[in-house]
Write a structure and sequence with these properties.
mainly alpha; two-stranded parallel sheet; 2 strands
Length: 100
């Protein structure tokens, strides 16, 4: 049987988590987050990469970076999770659902 959603454990996790908690950097701006961002930038040959805490947060950040305004329309498939649309609705965009 293939385990569902089993994390890859390499043995350093407990030490790293403890270090981040001691440094009060358990979310988004710790040493290891910065290392992850840097590694992704190197692997994808991009100027800037940011890991996020969730796909929803990534969509919200994308809406902000795209400067979505209340007069903008965002096209998305009708069969989607509600938070996909909410990321843009929060910026005032009109969602146009399509069937694909």
């Amino acid at each position: 049987m293939i385990p569902f959603n089993a994390p890859l454990l390499l043995g350093n996790e407990e030490r790293i988590i403890k270090q981040e908690i001691e440094n009060h950097k358990i979310c988004c701006d710790g040493e290891f987050t910065k290392k992850c961002n840097q590694k992704i930038e190197e692997m994808t040959d991009t100027k800037k990469a940011l890991i996020t805490t969730s796909g929803t947060f990534a969509l919200e950040m994308a809406a902000i970076l795209c400067d979505i305004q209340p007069s903008d329309e965002v096209i998305m498939q009708s069969y989607t999770f509600v938070l996909t649309a909410n990321a843009f609705v929060l910026r005032g965009a009109k969602i146009v659902f399509i069937i694909i």
